[in-house]
Amino acid sequence: MSGRTQAMKCLSSWSGGKDGCLALYQALQAGHKISHLVNFISKKYKRVRFHGTEAELIQLQAKALGLPLLQNETEDDDYEPAFKKAVKSLLPHNIRGMIFGDIYIQEHKDWVERVCRELGIKALEPLWGKLPEKVLREFFNAGFEAVIISADSKLIAEKWVGRKVDKGFIKYLKDRELDPCGEKGEYHTLVVNGPIFRKKIKISRSKPILREGYWYLDTIEYTL
C-alpha cells in the first residue's frame, strides 16, 4: 500500500484468485479489518465474472477463511450497478474502504477509484505498482497455494488447467513471454491454502472444459 493508510474497516473485492488474496493478506497485515468478501458471479454460468470459478468454490473459500461472503449474480451488462448496490448494502457495517488486487492496468484502477469515490469509501490497492514477479514471490513466500482455474486456450495448454501454480508453470509463461501474474487475463487461479486459511481446500476430481476460447476447470469432488 502506498504511504501510510489509517487502519479501517473494509470490504474485500473477491474473485478467489491469488492477487486478490495477497491484497487481502497484506491489508490485514497493515491493520485493516475485513467485514465481508464481495463476489460476483454470472447469472448464466454460476461462475465468477471474468474468472470462471464455480460459485460453490468461492463459498468454500469464505468458509476456509472464516469471513462472511456476499455473493451476487449479475447479467453481462449490469456489473457496475450491481457492484454499487452490493457495496451500498454493506455500508451500514461502518465500512470505510475496499481492497482490490490490481497490479498495473490503469483502467482497472481508475474504475475502482471512481466507483469507490461515488460510494463514499476509499479504494485500497496493496499490490499496485509492484512488478508481477515480485507479487508472485510475495504470494509464495507468504505460504499461499493456488491452482489454475481457467486459462486462455490460445496461450496456455489444457494440461495446466487444474494444476498448481509452481516454478514449472512460471517458466512456461516466461518462455512464452506471458505476464507471470496473468494480469491481462492469460490465466486465473483459485487459492486453496495459506496463512489466513483455517483449512485447505482439496480438489480430488476435476476436468477442464472449453468454452468460447477459454479453458475452465469443472470440479467434480472437493472437500475442506
Q: Could you describe the 3D structure shown?
A:
The protein is an alpha/beta fold. It has 2 domains: 9-124, HUPs (Rossmann fold); 148-223, putative n-type atp pyrophosphatase, domain 2 (Alpha-Beta Complex). The protein is 30% helix and 28% strand. It has 6 helices and 9 strands. The protein has helices at 18-29, 55-65, 79-90, 106-119, 132-141, 167-175, and strands at 9-13, 33-42, 69-74, 97-99, 122-124, 145-152, 187-193, 202-211, 214-223. The longest helix has 14 residues, at 106-119. The protein is globular, with a radius of gyration of 17 Å.
Task: Provide a brief overview of the structure.
This protein is 30% helix and 28% strand. The protein is α/β, with parallel strands linked by helices.
CATH class of the largest domain: Alpha Beta
One letter per element, helices H and strands E, the order comes to EHEHEHEHEHEHEEE
- What structural class do helix, strand and pairing data support? alpha/beta
CATH architecture of the largest domain: 3-Layer(aba) Sandwich
Number of helices: 6
CATH superfamily of the largest domain: HUPs
Strand order of the largest sheet: 3-2-1-4-5
Helical fraction: 25-40%
Q: What distance separates the N and C termini?
A: 31 Å
Which blocks of ≥5 consecutive residues have pLDDT under 50? Answer: none
Looking at CATH, which topology of the largest domain would you report?
Rossmann fold
By DSSP, the count of extended strands is 9
Number of domains: 2
Shape: globular
The proportion of residues in beta strands is 25-35%
